[in-house]
Amino acid sequence: MMTRALVLTSSILGENGQSKGLAEHFLKRAANRDDLSVTTRDLVANELPHLKADELGAWQVPADERDAEQRALAARSDELLAEFRDHDVIVLAVPLYNLGIPSQLKAWFDRILRSGETFRYTENGPKGLVEGKRAVILAARGGQYAGTELDSQTPHLKTMLGLMGITEVDTVFAEGLAMGESHRESTLKEARQAIDSLVERL
Protein backbone atom coordinates (compact mmCIF):
# COMPACT_ATOMS: atom_id res chain seq x y z
CA MET A 1 0.00 0.00 0.00
CA MET A 2 1.40 3.37 -1.04
CA THR A 3 1.80 6.11 1.58
CA ARG A 4 1.63 9.64 0.18
CA ALA A 5 3.52 12.50 1.86
CA LEU A 6 3.12 16.22 1.18
CA VAL A 7 6.27 18.16 2.12
CA LEU A 8 5.79 21.90 2.67
CA THR A 9 8.82 24.19 2.95
CA SER A 10 8.65 27.82 4.05
CA SER A 11 12.18 29.15 4.48
CA ILE A 12 12.89 32.55 2.95
CA LEU A 13 16.56 31.51 2.67
CA GLY A 14 15.84 28.96 -0.03
CA GLU A 15 18.48 26.23 -0.36
CA ASN A 16 20.48 27.90 2.43
CA GLY A 17 17.67 27.44 4.95
CA GLN A 18 18.28 24.85 7.66
CA SER A 19 14.62 23.78 7.66
CA LYS A 20 14.88 23.31 3.88
CA GLY A 21 17.91 21.13 4.55
CA LEU A 22 15.89 18.96 6.91
CA ALA A 23 13.21 18.62 4.25
CA GLU A 24 15.83 17.64 1.67
CA HIS A 25 17.12 14.96 4.02
CA PHE A 26 13.56 13.67 4.44
CA LEU A 27 13.18 13.53 0.65
CA LYS A 28 16.49 11.70 0.25
CA ARG A 29 15.47 9.03 2.75
CA ALA A 30 11.94 8.78 1.35
CA ALA A 31 13.38 8.06 -2.11
CA ASN A 32 14.68 4.76 -0.74
CA ARG A 33 11.16 3.52 -0.09
CA ASP A 34 9.13 2.16 -2.99
CA ASP A 35 5.92 2.40 -0.97
CA LEU A 36 6.30 6.11 -0.14
CA SER A 37 5.50 8.80 -2.71
CA VAL A 38 6.27 12.45 -2.04
CA THR A 39 4.88 15.74 -3.33
CA THR A 40 6.69 18.98 -2.50
CA ARG A 41 5.37 22.53 -2.27
CA ASP A 42 7.69 25.48 -1.67
CA LEU A 43 5.49 28.14 -0.09
CA VAL A 44 8.09 30.84 -0.71
CA ALA A 45 8.80 30.08 -4.38
CA ASN A 46 5.04 29.66 -4.87
CA GLU A 47 3.93 32.31 -2.42
CA LEU A 48 0.27 32.70 -1.53
CA PRO A 49 -1.14 36.18 -0.93
CA HIS A 50 -2.45 37.10 2.48
CA LEU A 51 -6.06 36.08 2.92
CA LYS A 52 -8.49 38.94 2.24
CA ALA A 53 -12.20 39.43 2.72
CA ASP A 54 -13.14 38.89 -0.95
CA GLU A 55 -11.48 35.48 -1.01
CA LEU A 56 -13.01 34.49 2.32
CA GLY A 57 -16.39 35.64 1.05
CA ALA A 58 -16.05 33.57 -2.13
CA TRP A 59 -15.92 30.37 -0.09
CA GLN A 60 -19.22 31.23 1.53
CA VAL A 61 -21.08 31.50 -1.77
CA PRO A 62 -22.45 28.17 -3.10
CA ALA A 63 -20.23 26.94 -5.92
CA ASP A 64 -22.97 27.12 -8.55
CA GLU A 65 -23.75 30.73 -7.60
CA ARG A 66 -20.22 32.18 -7.76
CA ASP A 67 -19.35 34.74 -10.40
CA ALA A 68 -16.10 34.48 -12.39
CA GLU A 69 -14.05 36.43 -9.85
CA GLN A 70 -15.39 34.37 -6.94
CA ARG A 71 -14.68 31.12 -8.78
CA ALA A 72 -11.10 32.19 -9.34
CA LEU A 73 -10.65 33.19 -5.71
CA ALA A 74 -12.25 30.00 -4.36
CA ALA A 75 -10.18 27.84 -6.70
CA ARG A 76 -7.00 28.84 -4.86
CA SER A 77 -8.16 27.22 -1.63
CA ASP A 78 -10.03 24.38 -3.35
CA GLU A 79 -6.86 23.29 -5.18
CA LEU A 80 -4.80 23.37 -1.99
CA LEU A 81 -7.49 21.40 -0.15
CA ALA A 82 -7.56 18.78 -2.91
CA GLU A 83 -3.78 18.39 -2.67
CA PHE A 84 -3.99 18.23 1.13
CA ARG A 85 -6.68 15.54 1.05
CA ASP A 86 -4.74 13.48 -1.46
CA HIS A 87 -1.90 12.83 1.00
CA ASP A 88 -1.62 10.69 4.12
CA VAL A 89 1.27 12.51 5.80
CA ILE A 90 1.74 16.28 5.99
CA VAL A 91 5.39 17.25 6.52
CA LEU A 92 5.98 20.83 7.65
CA ALA A 93 9.59 22.06 7.39
CA VAL A 94 9.45 25.17 9.54
CA PRO A 95 12.01 27.83 10.47
CA LEU A 96 11.39 29.96 13.56
CA TYR A 97 10.84 33.61 12.71
CA ASN A 98 10.34 35.94 15.66
CA LEU A 99 9.03 33.04 17.75
CA GLY A 100 6.35 32.20 15.18
CA ILE A 101 5.78 30.52 11.83
CA PRO A 102 6.59 32.16 8.48
CA SER A 103 3.73 34.22 7.08
CA GLN A 104 3.91 32.10 3.92
CA LEU A 105 3.00 29.01 5.94
CA LYS A 106 0.24 30.92 7.74
CA ALA A 107 -1.23 31.84 4.35
CA TRP A 108 -1.37 28.12 3.49
CA PHE A 109 -3.08 27.26 6.78
CA ASP A 110 -5.55 30.10 6.23
CA ARG A 111 -6.78 28.28 3.11
CA ILE A 112 -6.74 24.78 4.59
CA LEU A 113 -8.51 25.63 7.85
CA ARG A 114 -11.99 26.11 6.42
CA SER A 115 -15.22 25.63 8.33
CA GLY A 116 -17.30 22.95 6.66
CA GLU A 117 -14.26 21.55 4.87
CA THR A 118 -11.64 20.52 7.44
CA PHE A 119 -13.56 21.30 10.63
CA ARG A 120 -17.05 22.30 11.71
CA TYR A 121 -18.53 24.20 14.60
CA THR A 122 -20.70 22.35 17.11
CA GLU A 123 -22.38 23.33 20.35
CA ASN A 124 -19.42 21.72 22.09
CA GLY A 125 -16.83 23.62 20.09
CA PRO A 126 -15.04 22.96 16.79
CA LYS A 127 -14.73 19.37 15.56
CA GLY A 128 -12.12 18.18 13.08
CA LEU A 129 -13.32 16.58 9.86
CA VAL A 130 -9.97 15.17 8.72
CA GLU A 131 -9.43 11.48 9.38
CA GLY A 132 -6.56 9.09 8.78
CA LYS A 133 -3.77 11.66 8.45
CA ARG A 134 -0.65 12.28 10.47
CA ALA A 135 1.81 15.16 10.47
CA VAL A 136 5.53 15.66 10.85
CA ILE A 137 7.10 18.94 11.97
CA LEU A 138 10.75 19.53 11.05
CA ALA A 139 11.67 22.55 13.16
CA ALA A 140 14.91 24.49 12.70
CA ARG A 141 15.82 27.18 15.24
CA GLY A 142 18.84 29.40 15.84
CA GLY A 143 18.36 29.20 19.61
CA GLN A 144 17.03 26.61 22.03
CA TYR A 145 13.33 26.97 22.74
CA ALA A 146 11.69 23.52 22.81
CA GLY A 147 9.89 22.90 26.06
CA THR A 148 10.11 26.52 27.18
CA GLU A 149 7.53 29.31 27.31
CA LEU A 150 9.22 30.93 24.33
CA ASP A 151 8.26 28.03 22.07
CA SER A 152 4.88 29.32 20.96
CA GLN A 153 5.43 27.87 17.49
CA THR A 154 5.04 24.17 18.33
CA PRO A 155 1.75 24.53 20.24
CA HIS A 156 0.42 26.80 17.47
CA LEU A 157 1.16 24.25 14.77
CA LYS A 158 -0.25 21.35 16.79
CA THR A 159 -3.38 23.34 17.62
CA MET A 160 -4.03 24.18 13.96
CA LEU A 161 -3.47 20.56 12.96
CA GLY A 162 -5.62 19.36 15.85
CA LEU A 163 -8.45 21.69 14.83
CA MET A 164 -8.74 19.62 11.66
CA GLY A 165 -8.49 16.32 13.51
CA ILE A 166 -4.79 15.60 12.96
CA THR A 167 -3.54 14.64 16.41
CA GLU A 168 -0.76 12.19 15.51
CA VAL A 169 2.15 14.61 15.16
CA ASP A 170 5.87 13.80 15.23
CA THR A 171 8.31 16.66 15.83
CA VAL A 172 12.01 16.75 14.98
CA PHE A 173 13.90 19.70 16.46
CA ALA A 174 17.20 21.07 15.19
CA GLU A 175 17.94 23.78 17.74
CA GLY A 176 20.84 26.01 18.66
CA LEU A 177 21.90 26.32 15.03
CA ALA A 178 23.32 29.80 15.67
CA MET A 179 25.24 28.73 18.76
CA GLY A 180 28.51 27.72 17.14
CA GLU A 181 29.62 25.35 14.39
CA SER A 182 30.22 22.38 16.67
CA HIS A 183 26.78 22.62 18.24
CA ARG A 184 25.15 23.14 14.85
CA GLU A 185 26.72 20.04 13.34
CA SER A 186 25.85 17.96 16.39
CA THR A 187 22.19 18.97 16.48
CA LEU A 188 21.81 18.57 12.70
CA LYS A 189 23.27 15.07 12.93
CA GLU A 190 20.77 14.16 15.65
CA ALA A 191 17.91 15.64 13.62
CA ARG A 192 18.89 13.68 10.51
CA GLN A 193 19.04 10.48 12.54
CA ALA A 194 15.57 11.20 13.92
CA ILE A 195 14.29 11.77 10.38
CA ASP A 196 15.82 8.48 9.25
CA SER A 197 13.98 6.63 12.00
CA LEU A 198 10.76 8.48 11.32
CA VAL A 199 10.78 7.76 7.58
CA GLU A 200 11.19 4.05 8.29
CA ARG A 201 8.03 4.12 10.43
CA LEU A 202 5.79 5.98 8.00
Automatic annotation (TrEMBL):
EC number(s) recorded for this UniProt protein: 1.6.5.-, 1.7.1.17
Database matches in Pfam families: Flavodoxin_2
Entry binding sites for FMN: S11
Residue span(s) of domain Flavodoxin-like fold: 4-197
Catalytic activity of the protein: 2 a quinone + NADH + H(+) = 2 a 1,4-benzosemiquinone + NAD(+); N,N-dimethyl-1,4-phenylenediamine + anthranilate + 2 NAD(+) = 2-(4-dimethylaminophenyl)diazenylbenzoate + 2 NADH + 2 H(+)
Record's cofactor remark: Binds 1 FMN per subunit.
InterPro entries tied to this protein: Flavodoxin_fold (IPR003680), Flavoprotein-like_sf (IPR029039), FMN-dep_NADH:Q_OxRdtase_AzoR1 (IPR050104), NADH:quinone_OxRdtase_FMN_depd (IPR023048)
The keyword Oxidoreductase is assigned to this record: yes
Top-rank EC class of the record's enzyme: oxidoreductase
Record keywords: Flavoprotein, FMN, NAD, Oxidoreductase
Molecular function per GO: electron transfer activity; FMN binding; oxidoreductase activity, acting on NAD(P)H as acceptor; oxidoreductase activity, acting on NAD(P)H, quinone or similar compound as acceptor
Cofactor(s) needed for function: FMN
Protein role: Also exhibits azoreductase activity. Catalyzes the reductive cleavage of the azo bond in aromatic azo compounds to the corresponding amines. Quinone reductase that provides resistance to thiol-specific stress caused by electrophilic quinones.
Family: Belongs to the azoreductase type 1 family.
Subunit structure: Homodimer.
Name of this chain's protein: FMN dependent NADH:quinone oxidoreductase
Gene name of the encoded protein: azoR
